[in-house]
Amino acid sequence: MFRKVCIVGCGLIGSSLARAIKKKNLAKKIVSSNRSKATNEKVIELKIVDESSSDIKKMAEGADLIIISTPLSSYKDVILKIKDCLNSETILTDVGSVKEKIMNLVEKNIPENISWIPSHPIAGTEESGPEAGFSNLFENRWCILTPNKKAKEKDINLLKKFWETIGSKVDIMEAKQHDYILSITSHIPHLIAYNIVNTSLNIQEEKESAIVKYSAGGLRDFTRIAASNPVMWRDIFIQNKNNTSNMIDKFINNLKDLKKAIENEDEEKLEKIFEKTKKIRKDIVAAGQDIEKPNFGRK
Amino acid sequence: MFRKVCIVGCGLIGSSLARAIKKKNLAKKIVSSNRSKATNEKVIELKIVDESSSDIKKMAEGADLIIISTPLSSYKDVILKIKDCLNSETILTDVGSVKEKIMNLVEKNIPENISWIPSHPIAGTEESGPEAGFSNLFENRWCILTPNKKAKEKDINLLKKFWETIGSKVDIMEAKQHDYILSITSHIPHLIAYNIVNTSLNIQEEKESAIVKYSAGGLRDFTRIAASNPVMWRDIFIQNKNNTSNMIDKFINNLKDLKKAIENEDEEKLEKIFEKTKKIRKDIVAAGQDIEKPNFGRK
User: Fold this and answer.
1) pTM to 2 decimals?
2) CATH node for A177-265
3) What residues in B contact A126, CB-CB < 8 Å?
């Protein structure tokens, strides 16, 4: 499918992509570029890329697919370094969780004839780093493309095919819409998880290890999400700050409403809300976006 | 261990107890009482109890262990019906998630010589009903006892042994302390999960099924918790309303703090908080309160 794929940043997502490309034999050559020497050595040792170096220009040279999979705050640095390696045959994509700001940032810095087609695979675990990746991470997961206006139709189709070949279902939408929807389905849930774990930590200092001990009552599920990559999530919230901020306000208003219902012992209202939220779980399992094993199969 | 165990309310927890008692052979006879005819028939069909009837007095008569496992709002009704069946040889317990209020309610309505020893197994799944139970639900989970002052020492020891035999680790504490700790480790996480799913539902009406489609980005984990039994949770929040209300305030204050850091693009502060929350996950896995499989082993 490609002559040379260059993955910039072999973390959980980047290394999973490398593995999937190898497994499906989608490139004659896969290379990666990482800032740290240890990571460049590790990906060679893991045999998930053919070559890896911190010399990003050398790695990007001649690649017909370049995938940026670094935290969002590194994009500017990456683009300034690789822009001279891009030519009319290059497809440039990424895997970032926020699109609108980086779309503009990258567009401003690359030649006109480049197909810049941001991707967002809705997939991941709470783990980080090249050893945490696995080739079937993208199977049965959605991947959203938000192509730049100047991206060539044939390149959009090829990149769509690429994601489908590694198991994803692909949707194409505007960056603005992407950032709004994802703030609800992903960014706010992560922020809330961080916040609840942080709130419990402030209390834990008083109550020693009681929080850890009795965490199976619900808190432990939040701690899993709140164990996700700190730099990656810091960047996501800042890049999507308007949506994040608006959603926080809606969330707080609803929470105050629930608080009032509890204080007033309004059984009817509480039950009605909790019945409604129960239903969406069934829809999600029916849509194949989760398994129906109770307790995530931990039983 | 017991002559006759009576389980009042064979839902997820009650039916799991019945199964565990049968499996470990801890009673000569197990009976249950449920309000609905269908449930009384179902538990007989599932062969998890020897007898079951809505006639709660008949079921409780002669039992040396009575376990109330109904929603908290049914306790008063249950106690008024069974109080005449209690005698000095009865151990009365429950499995409810809030203790202080029901401790007093029950104490006021039972004879002096009864060992009233509330239990709270920190275990469960998002499913409800007698078919959802399983015998090893309590294995390696904590169970907190908050014995009434008049409970006999030998009965406390026997009940402790009972929980240990079905796999639990037992802690004894004051009801007040229990309600405070559990509001952090269990009640608030559930309330937050309900609130985030409810917030996303209000938006979903605008955006059709996009929320379900892209839920794998984080939201789906909350929907699992928010699929828990609505009546049970409504009762928990109302019974523990002071702690719940205080914790909501703390939660909202912290969330506003995070919001401000995001709006100010305060990278350092955000990263510091997210690094801190990452650490507690390791403590929870190390304490055996969760598995370390990434993504709950869904990968």
Assistant:
1) 0.90
2) 1.10.3660.10
3) 281, 294-295
